[in-house]
Amino acid sequence: MNEVVQDIKNMDFKRVYLLCGEEAYLREQYRNKLIDAVTPPGDTMNTAFFSGKDINIASLIDLGETMPFMAPRRLIVVDGSGLFKGAVDDKIVDYMSEIPEGTVFVFNETEVDKRSRMYKAVQKNGHVEECGVQKEADLKVWIARLLKDEGKKIRGSTVERILGRCGTDMVNLKNEIDKLVAYVGERDIIEDEDVDSICTLQITNSIFDMVEAIANGMQKKALDIYYDLLLLKEPPMRILFLIAREFNILLQVKTLTEKRAASGEIAKAVKIPPFFVKKYVSTAAGYTSESLKRALQDCVSAEEDVKTGKITDKLSVELVIIKYSGRRK
Q1: What CATH topology corresponds to 3-130?
Q2: Alpha helices per DSSP H over the chain
């Protein structure tokens, strides 16, 4: 069982918690559960909130030293402080080992430097909960559970369709699940058609589909995706940047595949969700390493041509797509 959940179940809390990582949904869930458990709901006397990078450290410590008012604990929640990146006041670092019994700190941070003194101080004196991108299996179970709570059923293949269309961000996934539930109304089963009809295709997934179409010589499909993105008011230069990013990922994946790296190793090295590795490996097979390098260089050249006024941004991206979708290798 997760240590934060275990502490809440036992009502036995550390003096300090750090919730960190890119998965905002999980951080928010743990944050809210700790708020509800450490102090009674509505206890404004013993619950304090700080946010931003201009926090007064002296005030934070003074509050931590204040005895709880007619309650067993005082809770101090600090969001997005930036205290875990770069230089910080020695006082707050040292205070992590001096927090009195009855005071609980909860730090909620998107980015941290694990080498920082503040990170190490919390790790030593409390608990660090890393909330990163979840594994495919965990996301599937979570989505199925959300739908079950709403009285809905879904096939495993349809769950995969949701992930492929909407990505792995749990905040976005929760919003898409809510849309699906509202869309199907009284119907019990979520179908593939429902996902296609109501779930928003994320731009990064659209870009991957475009690059996949380019690799397979499906020029019309690649251009149709591009024109759809333009209709959605996506700037051509942002689309070009994302295309270059996909080509770069494919080059890394192809290189690692040729070295017989395992899927988990590829996912970690390239920083993509493990369940996307198979798709990237398959798409990379449609290119040679040299063609991927040329594609990256052509993306750079296209951007330079736009900046120097040689060509319009829309046409520059279109030409890259046409060039690389006109051949398989």
Answers
A1: Rossmann fold (3.40.50)
A2: 3-10, 24-38, 57-65, 90-95, 117-125, 136-149, 156-166, 170-184, 192-198, 203-215, 219-231, 236-258, 263-270, 277-284, 289-307, 313-325
pLDDT in tens, 107-120: 999 989 999 999 99
Q: Return the half-sphere exposure (C-beta side, CA atoms, 13 A cut-off) of residue 61.
A: 13
CATH of domain 203-325: 1.20.272.10
How big is the chain, counted in residues? 329
Question: Is residue 115 within 8 Å of residue 123, measured between CB atoms?
Answer: no
- Would you list the domain boundaries of the chain? 3-130, 136-198, 203-325
C-beta separation of 67 from 102 below 8 A = yes
Instruction: State pTM to two decimals.
Output: 0.69
Query: What CATH code is assigned to 136-198?
Result: 1.10.8.60
Q: Write the pLDDT tens digit of every residue in 15-57.
A: 999 999 989 999 999 999 999 999 988 888 999 999 998 899 9
- What percent of the chain clears pLDDT 90, i.e. is strictly above it? 66
